[in-house]
Amino acid sequence: MTPQKEGASMVQRQFPKPSELMEFMQFKKPSLDFTGNRLEKALTIYDLRKIAKRRTPAAAFDYTDGAAEGEFSMNRARQAFEDIEFHPGVLTDVSTVDTTTEVLGGTSAMPFGIAPTGFTRLMQTEGEIAGSGAAGAAGIPFCLSTLGTTSIEDVRKVNPDGRLWFQLYVMREREISYGLVERAAKAGFDTLFFTVDTPVAGARLRDKRNGFSIPPQLSLKTVANAIPRPWWWYDFLTTPSWNSPRSPQPAVPWASC
Ligand SMILES: Cc1cc2nc3c(=O)[nH]c(=O)nc-3n(C[C@H](O)[C@H](O)[C@H](O)COP(=O)(O)O)c2cc1C
């Protein structure tokens, strides 16, 4: 036996054995569920945002992603969330955890719900149907916006037993507002959110720069932006118009207080 030279490797080498190699080969069966494949790779909300940006025309993406003026308050809100720290409680029995809580006179399986968003189907064609159905399945409340893009009744249809809330922008034509509240009550929505902070619309600069409008207008710029995103246009053109179920062509919402 030759003595080991100082500093030389002690690792023993062998020829790779095919049987051992096979153990490491884990080829996933290819799936034709492209949406599922994409979503499986999205591990955080930021991953989802990246996918949305790639697949949605700039004006629709920016309406959802942007905020007013320099977007300072949105960035502060985001920072406030990031500043939250959980204090770990170790050596505690967590074999059964119940996150159920009471909110606004009813229960919710988790201490949050889905906030109202205008023109939800602008971002994804299933919009409120997906949101309301998911909220129902998760046992959390879903809030429908006055400027939503699915009818009050259809939102209830996909979530027959869950808690639904209705967010109200008071229109100049008061009768429209009263009508919406009555329909929501009849459909079993249990809470009314009365929004009072929009006597005038915010200066959403991204929307201005994009020439954002409802319904979307085709200009040279929007066509150029749409070409790599054909599925969005396919969804838009092959599903019912956003304005059909509820009246507003968005009259500027206002509050008289
Ligand atoms: C794209 C978008 C649309 C919104 N539309 C409405 C709306 O129609 N009515 C409303 O009261 N709030 C609306 N909001 C405000 C949200 O309901 C929510 O209050 C706000 O986003 C703050 O919550 P967050 O920090 O979880 O985003 C909208 C927010 C976004 C991002």
If you had to describe this structure to a student in words, what would you say it looks like?
The chain has a single domain, classed as Aldolase class I (TIM Barrel). The protein is mainly α and 257 residues long. The chain has helices at residues 18-24, 34-40, 45-55, 58-65, 72-82, 120-123, 127-138, 152-157, 174-186, 205-210, 220-226, 230-237, and strands at residues 101-103, 106-108, 142-144, 164-168, 191-194. The longest helix has 13 residues, at 174-186. Helix 8 (152-157) links the parallel strand 3 and strand 4 (164-168). Helix content is 39%, strand content 7%. The radius of gyration is 26 Å and the shape is extended. Flavin mononucleotide binds at residues 63-64, 77, 115-118, 145, 147, 167, 195.
| Nearest-integer average pLDDT | 87
The assigned CATH architecture is Alpha-Beta Barrel
Q: Which class in CATH terms?
A: Alpha Beta
Whole-number count of domains: 1
- Biggest sheet, in brief? 3 strands, parallel
CATH-assigned fold name:
TIM Barrel
H/E series: HHHHHEEHHEHEHEHHH
Protein name: L-lactate dehydrogenase
GO molecular function: oxidoreductase activity
Pfam family, one: FMN_dh
Organism: Rothia aeria
